[in-house]
Amino acid sequence: MNRKELREFLTATMSMTEVYQPVVIKHLLLNGGSCSKEQLATRLADNDESVQEYYRRILMRWPKITLTKHDVVSYDRTTQQFKLNLEPSDSEFDDLVAICDAKIASWISSKRRSKSGSEVTSSLRYEVLKEARGKCQLCGVPSELTPIDVDHIVPRSKANKYGKVIIEGKPVDVHSKDNLQALCFRCNRAKRDGDDTDWRRRKKLIRDEVPSQIKSEGRLPIVKKLTGSALTVALRDKLVEEVGEYLSSGKIEELADILEVIRALAKSTGHSEYEVEEVRENKVRDRGGFEEGWFYEGDG
User: Fold this and answer.
1) Given 71, 86, 181, 225, which is the most exposed site by the fewest CB atoms within 10 A?
2) Domain finish residue from 114, 145, 180
3) pLDDT for res 25
4) In the chain, what is the straight-line distance between the N-terminal and C-terminal CA atoms, in Å?
5) For residues 184 and 191, is the Cβ–Cβ distance under 8 A?
């Protein structure tokens, strides 16, 4: 990519759903064309350590994918370094940085206008994402697979003149954590402006011995016993939850939880774990397993 092409990308080609791309390009320009993943993540997170990990994931998705596709930057996996694919002259350097600044300022201004001055701070955002364990509270997809947004359950447009909305019959600040939930990019964009559905999964299926363990701690659990189709639905939701947990942590304990949910799900639908294993063995015998790592890319 030459200087003219970068200018064309910044002024005409670049399509922004967030402020990330011009931030990445600007700081590559300011650092001689090369920055580490950590340096750029710091810039995206605006030096807030509580959201550093979130923006490392953001950086490696949309900015990296889009900017490398357009040959604006390259990324070395070994050194974890980003590199701007040109060396601007002194005369063009200030101009390109100014364009990035203008793009950033324009985006922030339009976002502020559309959101009427959101007061969700970085620390509050971190608390909401932490409570959601980094997953969409509607579909269960983890932040490793897609960016997770912080959404107002009751829209800001429904707040009264004092900035209050009604949650569970009580008035709370529209920007309170009580009115915030974690939704993935897709679920949040699909949500209608007037939709005030609370997707936080505070009620969920738990292991059989957990109620008695809660009682032993001096607490009184509010539980009910599910059977039939209600249990099957809850087990399906639990399977999504446990898969998300494994994708987030990679721990063997989460794999064990997945297997336990599968066993219970098979039983709830009238199948034994031995039937499931028999079907698995038949498929392995007919078509093999997944251990060798064959990845299909199409027909030659």
Assistant:
1) 225
2) 114
3) 92
4) 31
5) no
The tokens describing 151, both together, are: 């959404």
d(CA 204, CA 19): 36
Torsion of CA 66, 68, 73, 79, to 10 degrees: 120
Say how far apart CA 82 and CA 43 lie, in whole Å: 13
Residues 38 and 101 in one domain: yes
- Residues near 48 by Cβ (< 8 Å), separated by ≥ 6? 122, 123, 126
Q: How many CA atoms lie within 13 A of 167 on its CB side?
A: 22
Over the chain (300 residues), what is each successive 10-residue block's mean pLDDT?
Answer: 90 83 90 89 65 74 90 92 88 89 84 58 82 81 80 86 80 87 82 71 82 88 90 89 78 92 94 92 94 86
* Residue keyed to tokens 């790592």: 293
Contact 137, 181 (CB under 8 A): yes
Enter the DSSP assignment of 150.
E
| Amino acid (one-letter) located at 120 | V
Number of structural domains found in the chain: 3
- State whether residue 193 is helix, strand or coil: coil
Interstrand relation of 73-76 and 81-84 (parallel, antiparallel or unpaired):
antiparallel
Q: Is the dihedral of CA 174, 179, 183, 187 positive or negative?
A: negative
Residue 109, token pair as written in the block: 């201004």
Q: What separation in angstroms does the CA of 173 have from each of 83, 116, 286?
A: 44, 15, 59
Which position has the token pair 């639905």? 233
pTM over 0.85: no
Which of 158, 190, 222 is the last residue in one of the domains?
Answer: 190
Three-state DSSP class for residue 142:
strand
User: What was the pLDDT predicted at 287?
Assistant: 94
Residue located via tokens 């990679």: 250
- The conformation of residue 287, written as its DSSP 8-state character, comes to H
